[in-house]
Amino acid sequence: MDQARENRRRIYISLHAPQILAGLSSNPDMGEFSPNDLRRRAVEQAGALFDETEVLPRTSEARPIRDWTESNGIVFGWTFPITEPPYVGTPNDKDWPEYFTHWTPITEPADPSDL
Questions:
Q1: Is residue 87 assigned to a domain?
Q2: Are 45 and 73 found together in one domain?
Q3: What is the CA angle 6-7-8, rounded to 5?
Q4: 97 with 67, same domain?
Q5: Distance (Å, whole) CA 49 – CA 43
Q6: Are residues 78 and 47 in the same domain?
């Protein structure tokens, strides 16, 4: 697995495993498993979900911060290589991390009822 994909996989797991763990922990059928076993299962499930969704094409190329304007509004801020989740906001935000050097637009998804 290339390093960029592995980094995306780690980020995906760090974002989704806690939600999966909460679901597993609240399931009465999982009572016989230790907390470590539940965490391991949550990480495995999050990794499997990433592997299923990673086949989707990328929707945009990262743009340099210098290309951002007010008309772009709130965006995802990135640093490369990707080692952490994106910042959500604008480069004008007081807490915009200076080391986030690129941005991608946040696209509005289509309403599922329209599909």
A1: yes
A2: no
A3: 90
A4: yes
A5: 10
A6: no
pLDDT in tens, 58-77: 667 889 999 999 888 889 99
Total domain count, the chain = 2
CA dist., res. 76 & res. 28, Å (int): 38
- The verdict on residue 58 lying in a domain is no
pLDDT, residue 53, reads 67
Could you tell me if residue 67 is inside a domain? Answer: yes
Q: How many CA atoms lie within 13 A of 94 on its CB side?
A: 0
65 Cβ neighbours under 8 A, 6+ residues apart: 77, 91, 100, 101, 102, 103
Considering the domain boundaries, does residue 101 fall inside one?
yes
CB 82 within 8 A of CB 7: yes
Tell me: cis bond preceding 105? Omega within 30 of 0 counts: no
5-21 pLDDT, tens digit each: 788 788 878 877 888 78
